[in-house]
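Worked example 2:
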Amino acid sequence: MSSSPSNHDHDPKPHPLINPNPSLHRYYTSLEAKLGYWLLLGNTRHFGYYPKGTTSPFPISKALRAMEDHLAASLLLNTPNKVLSPNNTNVTPSSPPRTTIQILDAGCGHAHVSIHLALTHIQPPPTTLHILAIDILEPHLRAARANILTAGLSQTISVRKMDYHHLDGISDGSLDGVFTMETFVHATDLEKALGEFYRVLRPGGRVVMYEYDHVDFNTETGTSGGPWGWKRNRMEEVKRKAAVINKYGSLPANGIFERGFLQRMLEEGGFEEVAVRDLTENIAPMLLFFYVLAYVPYLFVRLFGLERRFVSTMAGVEAYRAYRVGIWRYVAVTARKPGVGSTGGDGGWEGKKMR
């Protein structure tokens, strides 16, 4: 059995290096966010997955677990041999076979995703799964530890206060997978974060991101028309509302995530086999549910100029509108760190800048 990513990975450092992000703390500790995530999503912080053509968002919990199962498939957890020895690039004749799959949950929240992966995607013996769940918010970390203890998974999931921009204490090439579930959008330094993901992954390891993207607001308009008659002269209004949501919802990367950006970023970062899957239609029932629920409060928020205080209400309406006119998507992005002898990569972010 292989060891954990490093000898001291799961011993919390007294002063972990954290990028300043006060808006992230304000958003997740706001009354609106706390009540919304609790009442609607059971403190899970991601969209649910529905078969195309589904109209009802209920039961929501089933859809949330389905999205987590989709993530597991993207991480290849259902095919452990591909994780432990992808193309035999991380196994040498002199090295013993590895039997532990090491995964990083980068921005774990209350750890519901990690818990579901650990409970549902149990590996066949002698293979075991270990997840390192990290977050920078103390309320999230406390809840994550309590939930993991309740689930009886303290030996499978470790929790640590850590910023994914600074994965100090995790050895180079020690992880089989890294995932973000709607958390990379909070990144304040994309190059630094992706460089850390690349560094800690083994050759053949996978990075999986479930995030958002959008059209270039300066050059494109999405699908013309739509139920609100969105035309070219309304794109400035779309940009203004998106800027408010990004600022007060602590989504600094969201404005940058134009279509094609995530794929290009990963390719320029040295990853190969980059794939982008559009799951927007699979979250449509939840988008509509949030829109219907938020619309009347949204009208009052706009009337009294309270957008910055009710960011989730704004997002609930504007995301659905943007989806309906084709300017916003929900995507699953997967990529692989090249293995020994691969021609697909060139060493990651060292000395590089994104174009």
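The two ends are 41 Å apart (CA to CA). The CA atoms of residues 77 and 121 lie 7 Å apart.
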